[in-house]
């Protein structure tokens, strides 16, 4: 379970970063 959490953390961060970038592009 801990291992999955470790692997999911970076993926979640990347997804959040991508979502923010997409939002910024939409605002532009």
Please, could you describe this protein's structure?
By secondary structure, the chain is mainly alpha-helical. It has one domain (1-27). Helices cover 93% and strands 0% of the residues. It is built from 1 helix and no strands. The longest helix has 26 residues, at 2-27. The chain is rod-shaped, with a radius of gyration of 12 Å.
Proportion of helical residues: over 70%
| Distance separating the two termini | 40 Å
Radius of gyration: 12 Å
Helix tally equals 1
Structural class: mainly alpha
Number of domains: 1
Beta-strand content: under 5%
Q: Per the principal axes of the C-alpha atoms, what is the gross shape?
A: rod-shaped
- Contiguous runs where pLDDT drops below 50 for at least 5 residues: none
Number of strands: 0
Largest sheet: none
Q: Multimeric state of these chains? A: single chain
* H and E order: H
For the residues shown, what is the average pLDDT? Answer: 80
